[in-house]
Amino acid sequence: MISRLLAVTFDAHDPARLAEFWAGMLGREVVEDAGGALLPGDDTQLGLRFVPSRGENAGPNRMHLHLTSDTDADQQDKVAAALGLGGAHLDVGQLPEEGHVVLADPEGNEFCVIEAGNAFLAGCGLLGELACDGTRQVGLFWSEALGWPLVWDQDQETAIQSPHGGTKVAWGGPPVAPKVGKNRQCFDLVAGGDDQQAEVDRLVSLGATRLPAGPDGAVWLADPDGNEFSVRVR
Questions:
Q1: Residue 21 lies in a domain
Q2: Amino acid 206: pLDDT
Q3: Do residues 208 and 222 lie in contact, with contact meaning Cβ atoms separated by under 8 Å?
Q4: What was the pLDDT predicted at 210?
Q5: Distance, first Cα to last Cα, the chain
Q6: Total domains present in the chain
């Protein structure tokens, strides 16, 4: 049975603080989870998980979130809410005429509030997209790994989406910046049928690479672009 994507896990200096920020942005409740904090998702919206780490960010994250807006006023309200919760504006070279607003959460993780009327994210919900730096190969890998169909495959850019709809996960294609150190964000999977070894073997057959075991019973792998992810049993 195919794994379920439990959450996107963030390394955090203060997991509780970061979870409260994102709970405020997404209108979710925080629950304790394996020494960290979890904002549970559902069939259509990704969960977010925050775990303690003292590591420093060695460069831009390979993943960032896109929040959608219903109207121009709604976009402005979301930006104001983020700033009020401890976020900040971020300059990543965006042009003045671009409609999205780039922000950082209290630990510097980049995210965007997308302008109203964005056709690609129509119907995807508040957490519209997880935008990733990655190759077409890794998009195809994750489509097979999660059983999520490709909803975009053009010019080396790919996107997948749960069969139930909701949040899209997209990869922007080359050039992909070199990986420096461990990613501070990763996918956290739950093995389908609670058969962790069979699922690990399946993922390796799809192109994953085994990594040293974690201290919490999770098996750690890397996808074809070298991004770490975990497979655990709930």
A1: yes
A2: 97
A3: yes
A4: 97
A5: 14
A6: 1
For residue 69, count other CB atoms closer than 10 A to its CB.
Answer: 24
Provide the H-helix boundaries in the chain.
15-26, 72-84, 136-146, 196-206
Q: What is the pTM of this model?
A: 0.95
CA 101 – CA 116 distance, rounded (Å): 11
Domain annotation covers residue 203: no
- Which regions of the chain does DSSP assign to beta strands (E)? 4-12, 31-33, 36-39, 48-52, 63-67, 88-89, 101-104, 110-113, 127-132, 150-154, 157-161, 168-171, 185-190, 209-210, 219-222, 228-232
**96 C-beta neighbours (distance < 10 Å), count:** 4
In this predicted structure, what is the pLDDT of residue 19? 98
Q: Please report the pLDDT score of residue 13 as a whole number.
A: 95
- Enumerate residues 6+ apart whose C-beta is below 8 A from 84: none
Residues constituting the chain = 234
Q: Give every residue of the chain whose pLDDT is below 70, as ranges.
A: 1, 58, 215
200 belongs to a structural domain = no
Pairing mode of beta strands 127-132, 168-171: parallel
CATH number at residue 97: 3.10.180.10
Q: In this structure, is residue 228 part of a structural domain?
A: no
pLDDT in tens, 124-162: 999 999 999 999 999 999 999 999 999 999 999 999 999
> Domain of 105?
12-182
